[in-house]
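Human:
Focus on the backbone:
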Amino acid sequence: MKLNTKIKIAGVEFKNPVMTASGTFGSGMEYSEFTDLNRLGAVVTKGVANVPWEGNPTPRVCETYGGMLNAIGLQNPGLDVFIERDIPFLKKFDTKIIVNVCGRSIADYVEVVEGLSDQPVDMLEINVSCPNVSHGGIAFGQNPDCLFEITKEIKAKAKQPIIMKLSPNVTDIAEMAKAAEAAGADAISLINTITGMKIDIHKRKFALANRTGGLSGPAIKPVAVRMVYQAANAVKLPIIGMGGIATAEDAIEFMLAGATAVAVGMMNFVNPYATGEIVSGIEDYMHRYNIRSISEIIGAVTD
């Protein structure tokens, strides 16, 4: 049986629904010896800012039950290095390029978006979990009015379709999804990490220098699936689901909940072959259940 694993988001066609999650795959250079990037629907890059960011002090990563905490602080070399080094590398492969964009103000985001306007990248993923320095440090993605404002401003400047990456650290994820949709987002991705903390009881010290960090990994998957389902039932936008995906079964669960595509994050650190294995696993699932097109499972969960 011939399988159709292609999906389409905002007019961009992907060979399959499996992507990498920003911040866990770099721009693919480190992983290219383990995973054939040509097999992936897309590579989503690490966050790119208008200028280099040093990130947070160490220690900034620690293990937890079923996952990890990170407080990297979006360390990155900045837009100029990304354009000169990372885009040419990714263009060697038959995969879509999605650039994750970060900033501390709307002007920062817009500068990156405009700087990428003439670059050969397919979509932009906007990380709205960054602290908004203009509004007392609250993340753009934690207030629907802020989210609406930044989405509208970026959409007005962007040449590529934009994906708003939603934070789970909110009261109502559906409200945030609606704000992104109303402001003109082309798609949404969720969830970003959940804020957590770990304390070393022997040293009586915080495990992370930043005290708090973002929790990722299998521990957050049930929360992520629930939020994807809620968002899918609140908006008509395509959704990229993520949060604890380790296997093809996990990826399919997200798609049944309403995700058009999925992104693999923390599992890349545990198993650098994970993304390729998930692509193959989805194909095996389709053969097993006689599913000709991947579109048949999107949002197909029943009571």
Notes: The first helix runs from residue 79 to 90.
